[in-house]
Design a protein that fits this description.
alpha+beta; Arc Repressor Mutant, subunit A; Glutaredoxin; five-stranded mixed sheet; 5 strands; 12% strand; binds FE2/S2 (inorganic) cluster
């Protein structure tokens, strides 16, 4: 399935703003992922060809960066940092709490298709350890004890199939009178800090 005209326009805008096509590849793949939720092989090829690049290095790039997804993921991709500063401050406990709540399959996806759990390396914000990335939000310090409440809030906000995920309508958006379905909106009532984008 070809990319939507808006995504194509966004990729053209990105390309025009950068001196080299290679520099435009990563943000263009992110733009394509924003439409699809993940990057099928044919989408990576389409983006590379739009930029006049070889699809093979583009595919290697997509598999290298953990923020790009070459397999279907849930609406919320939770990437917990396991590097030493986060580990010393309890990232293992956070991961275990997430696993206990989500019961992820072998691909890390929860049965409802809403969440994907990943384990990653340093997210670059060690003073806020333990950290995790939730889509484009970076949050910490995490407390394993608040994980069930955090997930409950996210689930409530996703009620009604208004999210893009494995089981939801790709065209669905936020409900009327509800802010964008972002993690930082959802966690406002929790003692977490959204430390940077
Ligand atoms: S070690 Fe976790 S953010 Fe740096």
């Amino acid at each position: 399935m070809a990319l939507a005209p808006e995504t194509i326009a966004e990729i053209e805008r990105i390309r025009a703003a950068l001196p080299e096509a290679r520099s435009a590849l990563l943000p263009s793949l992110k733009a394509a992922q924003g439409e699809r939720g993940w990057l099928p092989q044919e989408t990576i090829k389409e983006v590379a060809e739009m930029l006049g690049l070889d699809p093979n290095p583009a595919y290697m790039l997509a598999t290298f960066y953990t923020m790009l997804h070459t397999e279907p993921v849930g609406h919320y991709v939770l990437e917990v940092c396991r590097s030493l500063p986060c580990y010393l401050r309890g990232s293992d406990g956070v991961t275990e709490a997430l696993r206990a709540e989500l019961q992820p399959d072998e691909h890390g996806n929860s049965a409802d298709g809403l969440f994907s759990l990943k384990i990653g390396e340093c997210l670059g914000d060690c003073p806020h350890a333990p950290m995790m990335r939730v889509n484009d939000d970076f949050v910490g310090p995490l407390d394993a004890a608040t994980i069930p409440e955090t997930l409950a809030i996210l689930r409530r906000r996703a009620e009604g199939g208004r999210v893009r995920g494995l089981m939801a309508d790709p065209a669905a958006g936020p409900a009327p009178n509800e802010g964008p379905l972002t993690f930082s909106n959802a966690i406002q009532s929790l003692p977490l800090t959204r430390v940077r984008d």
